[in-house]
């Protein structure tokens, strides 16, 4: 059987079959044309029905506009008697049977009055026509929907009620029932088994004929025809309908609904009905074509041996030799002018070409090996170059980190006030951790007088080298404007003015948030200014409370370096012995936990308050440990800088900074 199927006779039979393909193609083309004609008829009928529906809808829209504009002037609609308004709307509904309901909506979406009885608690604030009417203060058309009051598929229209000042006080609406579409389908005389369906942009069936109650409200999105409807505005498609029968569909968008979103009307005709005549003619033509094909196959089967087979055997033998790798094999058949001679010539040409290409392939492989060796060497050289540059960059970053850490205060942990009544003191503890080799956070502690100390915490936009360079600029500005440091507002204002000048012309947006405080130990008073920075937290240990230094609803001033402003304000608050102050950057609380929840300043304050009786350095360690445990990565995602300050009682030593060993993290 295998030899028979692979022999020349079988190929001749296949050639006859191929020769019959034009006739078969013509047969199917004719059937296709007949099917296309049937589909065109269905589409024309569908478009006719859709245009009728659109024309009726356009008239209904204009009628609704005029009626609603008139209703907005009625005293019952504008008044506060919902019963009187409901009675009026019910009478209007009786007079205008095209409308399924009238109603009045309050600005919060509740229904003030309705022409139909309704359940309690209905709210229409999310309806498209209500939103559009309120936003535009003009007549608006909504999306096609299933009414919450009527329970019917329809489209609603809204008209805002304006007071004397032009403010929207209510929205009056009218609803048109889509059952008219089903009546139109019933009058359209669709073929047996035909269906008409109206579908909105979400795939929900708004109207259908026949059996409207059975199908209304169901989804069409799982049906094959839905893909064609959403892909094209109008056209035809063949698919299985919702009733499981193969159908020819024609669909188009419903005109006159520009404000109501995508709405489609589709008509389905069973393929058995639409293509009945085309299928009958196709069956007849196929029977005739099979008879003719059988006669041609018999002629090829029995006549091929006499006219073709013997001359082809030589070609078969040459082919076997070529298959075994003998590229010098030739057919030996005279070429002549016949088909077999042409085939022999083509075979011999192919063998010559294969022999030549084999030689070319060998040369190409040799060249490829040589090129690969050169490419590998180039890759190795480039890799070595990149490795050296990377090592140099890492070395530069290590040096930059050392310079950056050198700018931070590492030995200022206590300030003892002199020349005061009680000789109070301040103790400092701090933590600094960059998210990369270098960071953009910065803090400094510097004495201003025998009783006053300045503390500043900054956060430069971004990370890495750019942020570190801007941080170094800020360090220099703090030193330059030290004479103004006793007044936080003037100090921050002067630094901002100079930073704006320095950053102008860098062709990039950079800014710095900063909080600067001045603590007067003798007066027990704190003055401070804020430039877009998180507000410090004030721990009052006597009652274990933590409060933000934010004054009421006051917002922090803009970040430094963005634009020049006249002045940053200063605020004050008292400090009592035993109180603690915490200044920090946003990396301390902008930590993402499970479910994308943020740690936040509120949770930070609670963490401090719950440990109010502990030493400040222990509070810092515990709060940072709690932040790490909260994070999904078990580490901080940004640069971290936090400074804790304790206002302590009387001491005996003179005013000075006491140095203790310690360094930033």
Task: Tell me about this structure.
There is one protein chain. The protein has 665 residues and is α+β, with helices and mostly antiparallel strands. It is 44% helix and 22% strand. It has helices at 2-6, 8-19, 21-71, 75-78, 82-95, 128-136, 179-187, 212-215, 224-231, 271-274, 276-323, 339-407, 464-480, 488-503, 600-609, 616-630, and strands at 99-106, 111-114, 140-146, 153-162, 168-177, 195-200, 205-209, 235-240, 246-253, 263-270, 414-416, 425-433, 441-447, 452-460, 512-520, 525-531, 537-540, 545-548, 571-574, 580-584, 640-648, 656-658. Strands 18-17-20-21-12-11-22 form a 7-stranded antiparallel sheet, with helices on one face. A 5-stranded antiparallel sheet has the order 2-1-5-4-3, with helices on both faces. Helix 2 packs antiparallel against helix 11, helix 11 (276-323) crosses helix 12 (339-407) and helix 12 (339-407) runs parallel beside helix 13. Residues 651-665 have low confidence and may be disordered.
């Amino acid at each position: 059987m295998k030899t028979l199927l692979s022999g020349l006779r079988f190929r001749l039979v296949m050639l006859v079959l191929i020769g019959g393909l034009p006739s078969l193609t013509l047969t199917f083309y004719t059937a296709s044309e007949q099917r296309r004609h049937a589909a065109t008829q269905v589409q024309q009928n569908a478009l006719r029905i859709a245009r009728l529906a659109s024309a009726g809808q356009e008239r209904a829209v204009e009628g609704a506009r005029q009626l609603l504009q008139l209703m907005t002037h009625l005293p019952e609609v504008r008044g506060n008697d919902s019963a009187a308004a409901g009675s009026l709307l019910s009478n209007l509904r009786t007079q205008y049977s095209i409308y399924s309901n009238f109603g009045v909506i309050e600005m919060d979406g509740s229904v003030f009055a309705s022409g139909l009885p309704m359940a309690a608690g209905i709210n229409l604030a999310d309806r498209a026509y209500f939103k559009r009417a309120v936003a535009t203060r003009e007549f608006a058309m909504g999306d096609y929907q299933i009414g919450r009051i009527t329970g019917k598929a329809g489209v609603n229209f809204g008209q805002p009620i304006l007071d004397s000042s032009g403010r929207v006080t209510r929205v009056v609406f009218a609803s048109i029932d889509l059952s008219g579409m089903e009546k139109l389908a019933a009058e359209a005389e669709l073929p047996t088994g035909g269906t008409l369906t109206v579908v909105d942009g979400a795939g929900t069936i708004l109207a259908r004929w026949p059996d409207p109650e059975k199908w209304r409200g169901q989804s069409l999105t799982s049906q094959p025809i839905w893909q064609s409807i959403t892909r094209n505005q109008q056209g035809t498609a063949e698919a299985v309908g919702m009733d499981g029968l193969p159908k020819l569909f024609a669909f188009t968008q419903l005109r006159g609904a520009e404000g109501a979103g995508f709405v489609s009307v589709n008509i389905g005709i069973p393929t058995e009905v639409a293509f009945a005549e085309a299928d009958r003619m196709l069956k007849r033509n196929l029977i005739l074509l099979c008879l003719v094909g059988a006669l041609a196959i018999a002629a090829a089967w029995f006549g091929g041996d006499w006219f073709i087979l013997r001359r082809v055997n030589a070609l078969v033998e040459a082919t076997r030799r070529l298959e075994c790798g003998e590229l010098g094999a030739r057919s030996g058949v005279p070429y002549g002018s016949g088909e077999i001679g042409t085939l022999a010539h083509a075979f011999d040409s192919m063998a010559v070409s294969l022999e030549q290409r084999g030689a070319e392939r060998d040369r190409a492989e040799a060249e490829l090996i040589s090129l690969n060796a050169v490419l590998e060497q180039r890759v190795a050289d480039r890799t070595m170059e990149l490795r050296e540059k990377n090592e140099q960059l890492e070395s530069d970053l290590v040096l930059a980190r050392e310079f950056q850490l050198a700018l931070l205060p590492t030995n200022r942990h206590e300030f003892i006030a002199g020349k005061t009544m009680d000789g109070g003191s301040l103790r400092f503890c701090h933590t600094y951790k960059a998210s990369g080799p270098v960071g953009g956070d910065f803090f400094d502690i510097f004495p201003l007088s025998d009783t006053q100390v300045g503390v500043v915490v900054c956060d430069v936009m971004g990370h890495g080298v750019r942020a570190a360079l801007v941080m170094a600029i800020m360090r220099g500005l703090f030193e330059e404007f030290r004479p103004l440091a006793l007044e936080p507002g003037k100090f921050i204002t002067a630094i901002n003015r100079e930073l704006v000048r320095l950053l102008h012309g860098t062709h990039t947006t950079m800014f710095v948030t900063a909080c600067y405080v001045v603590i007067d130990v003798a007066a027990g008073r704190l003055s401070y200014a804020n430039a877009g920075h998180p507000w410090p937290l004030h721990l009052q240990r006597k009652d274990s409370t933590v409060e933000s230094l934010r004054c009421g609803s006051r917002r922090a001033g803009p970040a430094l370096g963005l634009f020049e402003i006249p002045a940053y304000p200063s605020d004050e608050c008292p400090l009592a012995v035993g109180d603690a102050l915490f200044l920090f950057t946003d990396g301390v609380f902008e930590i993402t936990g499970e479910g994308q929840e943020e740690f936040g300043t509120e949770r930070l304050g609670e963490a401090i308050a719950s440990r109010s009786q502990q030493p400040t350095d222990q509070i810092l360690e515990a709060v940072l440990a709690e932040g790490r445990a909260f994070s999904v990565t078990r580490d901080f995602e940004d640069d971290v800088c936090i400074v804790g300050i304790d206002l302590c009682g009387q001491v005996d030593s003179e005013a000075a900074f006491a140095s203790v060993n310690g360094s930033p993290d």
